[in-house]
Specification:
Elements: H1 2-16, H2 31-46, E1 50-53, E2 59-63, E3 73-78, H3 91-104, E4 113-118, H4 131-136, H5 155-161, E5 179-185, H6 190-194, E6 198-204, E7 206-215, H7 232-248, E8 253-255, E9 259-262, E10 272-281, H8 284-305, E11 308-317, E12 320-321, H9 324-336, E13 341-346, H10 351-357, E14 362-367, H11 370-373, H12 384-401
Parallel strand pairs: 3-4, 3-5, 5-14, 6-13
Antiparallel strand pairs: 1-2, 2-4, 6-12, 6-14, 7-10, 7-11, 8-10, 9-10
Helix pairs in contact: 1-3, 1-12, 3-12, 7-8, 9-12
The structure holds (2S)-amino(hydroxy)ethanoic acid and manganese (II) ion (MN) (2 copies).
């Protein structure tokens, strides 16, 4: 599998240099993301896979099995990246799916095995994550296609520029897969610190993405006494500090990553500030507490500064437990391959969380993130041998799920399997 892992790394290098910046920058539903899909499609066609795209441009590459009517085995991830991204986030899961399909070609497959690439998982361009997988599952928010990016281009326009149509609101997961598997970099330090090459994910963090607007009163920076201002940026600052302190007292996390100030000149008191708030927690009650805390802090900040606060939740995904049978299958494969592995939770959101929330048996594998767990930065890195190990575990698990080794419907995990 080391050869496959090295080929996967080579393909990640080719994807990394798309676009013009010295790091990955493939915005969702952009030309650069489209270029990445075209490159991956070429690789998948030359591997003899049957290519199809769905309404929003998610890519499906099929290795056909004997039983075309049986639920398929899907594996994959996303190809878009954050603005200053690395090589591995998302793309590793797609090139790994291609490697597994290539390895299984020529086998007597029961179920079809499908390599999948989802659109716009990162969500920073239009403000909501996991667009492609949510569209597939019928989980788009009302009015979501009218959301515009910083240049005023809406989701709808971005789709039509790519030759895509308006997706049906109920999604198109009629032919539910038997399982979905996603290989991903951990994006944290746990596996590397433990010296364990393989992570088997048991749950995915819950995420609530908010947009907040503080409306104050513009005024001259020199002639307005401090006690007679309605400074929108001062309100935002109160909120940000309060939110950081509140989150630090919980097991959750809170991040303000975007902020815009109007009118944005140094000698005018800010009249409007628009900012994002990304709240995450492993348990639903913790997430609710963080959300409630945000609402209260926003109101307090507005009151203290004489501003108005408007808070809207753009999108949220509940904490998701992954499939116990798939955890067993993945851990059994790791044991048989004598690969050290560890179960862990994901602090990052993934398409796997959306697919799982739609009721599909879903599993995730992690490889260690080196450089202290760096991710969403160009320094993102993992170990080639760890990729090889993950490919071996993924291939063995997919083989079994596709029922190559046994009867079509009876291959179930051995309940007494070692953990
Ligand atoms: O934000 C996340 O957790 C993921 O990288 N989209
Ligand atoms: Mn990702
Ligand atoms: Mn990411």
């Amino acid at each position: 599998m080391v050869v496959a892992a090295k080929r996967a790394r080579g393909r990640l290098d080719q994807l990394f240099v798309l676009g013009e910046s010295p790091h990955a920058c493939r915005p969702g539903l952009s030309d650069v993301e489209e270029h990445a899909f075209s490159l991956v499609e070429r690789w998948m066609r030359s591997a003899g896979l049957e290519i199809s795209y769905d309404a929003v441009g998610n890519l499906f590459a099929r290795l056909l099995g004997r039983s075309r009517g049986s639920p398929e085995v899907w594996l994959g991830s996303h190809l878009d990246t954050v603005p200053g991204g690395g090589r591995f986030d998302g793309a590793l899961g797609v090139v790994a799916a291609l490697e597994v399909a290539e390895r299984l070609r020529g086998n007597d497959l029961g179920r079809s095995v499908v390599a999948v690439a989802f659109r716009d998982e990162e969500g920073w361009r239009f403000g909501r994550s996991c667009f492609g997988s949510r569209a597939l599952c019928g989980l788009l928010e009302r009015g979501e296609l009218d959301a515009a990016d910083a240049d005023g281009i809406t989701v709808r326009e971005a789709l039509s520029r790519l030759g895509r149509s308006e997706p049906p609101s109920h999604g198109w997961l009629e032919r539910r897969p038997a399982a979905f598997l996603e290989l991903h970099v951990e994006q944290g330090p746990v596996l590397a610190q433990a010296g364990v090459p393989l992570g088997i994910v048991n749950s995915i963090v819950g995420i609530s993405e908010f947009s907040l607007t503080f409306d104050g009163r513009a005024g001259h920076a020199g002639t307005n006494p401090m006690g007679r201002r309605a400074d929108a940026l001062s309100a935002a600052a109160n909120l940000i500090v309060g939110l950081q302190q509140a989150a630090a007292r919980t097991h959750g996390v809170a991040t303000v990553g975007q902020l815009s100030v109007s009118p944005g000149t140094s000698n005018v008191i800010p009249s409007r500030v628009v900012l994002s708030a990304d709240l995450r927690a492993a348990h639903a009650n913790e997430l609710r507490e963080l959300e409630q805390c945000l609402l209260e802090l926003a109101q307090e900040a507005a009151t203290v500064t004489g501003c108005e606060a408007h808070v809207s939740r753009r999108w949220h995904s509940e904490p998701t437990r992954l499939s116990a049978p798939l955890i067993q299958r993945l851990s059994r494969a790791a044991e048989e391959l004598e690969l050290p592995w560890q179960e862990l939770a994901s602090g990052a959101g993934h398409d796997a969380g959306i697919i799982a929330s739609a009721g599909v048996d879903t599993g995730m594998l992690f490889v260690p993130s080196l450089n202290g767990g760096a991710s969403h930065v160009p320094e993102e890195d993992t170990d080639t041998l760890a990729i090889a190990d993950a490919l071996a575990a993924l291939t063995l698990t997919v083989r079994r799920l596709a029922n190559i080794d046994g009867d079509l419907e009876t291959a179930v995990p051995n309940p007494g399997g070692k953990r």
